[in-house]
Specification:
single chain, mainly alpha, Arc Repressor Mutant, subunit A, two-stranded parallel sheet, globular, DNA-binding
DNA sequence: CATATGACCAAAC
DNA sequence: GGTTTGGCCATAT
């Protein structure tokens, strides 16, 4: 792998942990990777993936539940829909339904 | 080394 | 629902 920064490896590892049909946020990934508050680094790390398809980058959206990716939002929406995640016409995902366990405190 | 920009976030208005 | 502000840090120039 050609990770520029050591922290990227941890970020990628956490993103790979997201199960299909679920989504998480940049900030939450940063916390799980051991870098609370460094959400921006997560976004940069995922952007750095470019063509490397080792990581399910499409399962990561912003904390508001919206797709933040301006470059591949169409592809990201299509991939999420393909996994069963309902994406709104405004590229919005219901975090209460599809949010990953790590950010979903009510499951009972 | 200094600035600007960015797949962010939370609080405030 | 929207915008603005301050904060975090990696890259590019």
């Amino acid at each position: 792998m050609s990770s520029q920064h050591p922290a990227y490896a941890a970020i990628y590892a956490v993103v790979r942990t997201i199960p299909p049909g679920k989504v998480s946020s940049y900030g939450r990934i940063a916390i799980l990777a051991g870098f609370p508050g460094h959400a921006r680094m997560v976004g940069y790390a995922l952007h750095s993936l470019h063509t490397t398809h080792d990581v399910p980058w499409w399962r990561v959206i912003n904390a508001h539940g919206y797709i933040s990716n301006a470059y591949h939002r169409d592809e990201q929406r299509a991939r999420l829909l393909a996994e069963g995640v309902a994406v709104d016409a405004r590229d919005h995902v219901n975090l209460h339904e599809y949010g990953w366990e790590a950010m979903n405190f009510r499951e009972a």
